[in-house]
Amino acid sequence: MTTGTGTKADPWVLKTPPGTSEYSMYRDDTSDPPTIVCQVGGTKLLYDARAIEELHAMLKAHGDWMPLGGADEQKPAPDGTVEAWGRSESNPRGGWYGLKKGLRGRFGVYMPPLMEALGLAELTHDAKNNRMRAKG
């Protein structure tokens, strides 16, 4: 169960797909571009907020389950995964949705639970190798 409204004062409180770690996210529309701020312990990651609509559109076009494939920025993302799409020159941003150099990865870990909380996707919640697909 997700809590929060997605503001800095009341962030979404989410869990990673396996349900093992809790983190928070909120939307900051005052930044340029608007960002999703992801707080994981003492680490703050930033993602382009357009990722929400664009990931949903990509998943709808894909039409089936897609592996998440979360990886740190310094590690390659497995082909055909949400993580790889979030870094790909062929996505609508022409590259990384992560905006903080050195911490641009983990798109496939932290964005999918937000998409699920917003009712835009469904996820599997296995110990590993989770997948997602579009809803709506």
Describe this structure in words.
This protein has 3 helices and 7 strands. The two termini are 20 Å apart. Helices cover 20% and strands 24% of the residues. The longest helix has 12 residues, at 51-62. The model has no long low-confidence stretch (mean pLDDT 95). It is an alpha+beta fold. The strands form 2 sheets. The protein has a 4-stranded antiparallel sheet, with helices on one face. A 3-stranded antiparallel sheet has the order 5-7-6. It has one domain. 32% of the residues are buried.
Topology:
Layout: E1 12-15, E2 22-28, E3 35-40, E4 43-48, H1 51-62, E5 66-67, H2 82-85, H3 107-117, E6 121-123, E7 131-134
Shape: globular
Q: Poorly predicted ranges (pLDDT <50, ≥5 residues)?
A: none
Q: Going across the major beta sheet, what is the strand order?
A: 1-2-3-4
Helix content: 10-25%
Mean pLDDT: 95
Radius of gyration over all CA atoms, rounded: 13 Å
Give the strand content.
Answer: 15-25%
**Assembly type:** single chain
Number of helices: 3
Distance between the termini: 20 Å
Characterize this entry briefly.
The chain is an alpha+beta fold and 136 residues long. The chain has helices at 51-62, 82-85, 107-117; strands at residues 12-15, 22-28, 35-40, 43-48, 66-67, 121-123, 131-134. A hairpin with a 2-residue loop joins strand 3 (35-40) and strand 4.
